[in-house]
Amino acid sequence: MLEASQCLQDVRGGWHEAQARASLRPEDRSPESSQRSLSRAIASMGTAPACDAGGFWMFQEDKQWLGFSPQMSAALEEVYQQWLQEEAGGALQPRDVPGVSPVMQYLAEFCCQGPKQRICRLSELHAAAVPVKKEARAEEIQALRRKVAELEHQAQQLLNAAPADGALLLDLQQTLVPGRFVHWEGLTGCVVACDSEAAIAFPDLEAAVWLPRAALRPDYAKELLSRPGSRVRYGRHERAVVCGRAAPFCAVVELLTPDGCKQRAKLQDLSKAAPSVERPAVGDLVTYKNGEELDGMVVQSNDLGLCIRCGLKRGIEDVLLSPAEADQALAQGVLRLSELNTLEPGMFVTRGEEVGVLFAIHADCSAVVDFIGARGWRGPLRSLAVLAAGSVQDEALAMCASISELLALSEAMTKCGALPQRLNQSLKAWPELHQTGQC
């Protein structure tokens, strides 16, 4: 590659040579002549053929010289040749004229003093004079070959590890561990302890029941419904949003109901509710304009109106709207369902280049995400995006989801402290389990 000064001499040389030989009449020195030539070249830039003769144009970025696209290079070469062949002999420096396109102003800068960006022209003469460094090229090729071989080796290792990863994933999904929800005979229970059999706590029983492992099936759907921010239906198909588990080792959750009150419900009595599409209901995520756009969650939606909990930098603020005010705000666009309303616990999300599982959504529009390699991140829900389909292998996502669930179980274990008395009776023979929370 030529030095930058050598490349620039080709452009500057044409400019000074044209100036020296020009003997111009006053009417020939009009800048409009140069601008017309530039305009004709720019107009044809979209259909310009690849630059295969004359010169190739380059630009400087971060102290490196990089080549323009063939179309752009051809357009610049055409401008340069037309400029030299004008009636003024190319001696006039093109100037910025109000109203012309920014592209023209950029192209005109190649002969200005102190241009904003340096560009240069590499002619066939220069190209022929560039020495070919065969040794450097050979070393470059060998380095590329080594890199390809390394990548092929890594790919083969991944292929060889796939069966083992599949077995590990299946084990993570099917193993009964304390805190995991299971399905048995139409009931949903929670694993308390494991041995040849498993001790299961059911909401309607005073003590845990030992059942054969083969009769139990992990209930992932109920585990998702137990996460904060999950929208559910209960009772006579009433809508509610889950606040979290009512207690460790218990298949009962706390719900926030439409009247803004909390109540407990059995997981087995809950079903998933879809996000609202018209009028916001409890648990829906909305955007409210009050001087600024605020993200919030509906925490009350009944005959008394709406209550929206918004997360602010200075804290949390509740916005209260009567039924009439809510109708007016919806009609005027002051209140609307947020584009974030489609997000639900268990979804795969991204934050920049990080990929993870959305574990929970809180009323202040903050989220808890277990990213691959970094669990328990908490931050604004708006900083997340739904993972595009096919961008990550399904096996990796399934593994991430299982690990996220198991991490939640371990957190439940650490929070349990002293187990309820009715569970202690079932664990008298397992003091070490009571202390460590391990099978």
TrEMBL record:
Comp. bias regions, Basic and acidic residues: 18-31
Keywords, comma-separated and alphabetical: Coiled coil
Segments of this protein annotated with the region Disordered: 18-41
Coiled-coil blocks: 134-161
Protein's name in the database: Uncharacterized protein
Gene source species: Effrenium voratum
Organismal lineage: Eukaryota, Sar, Alveolata, Dinophyceae, Suessiales
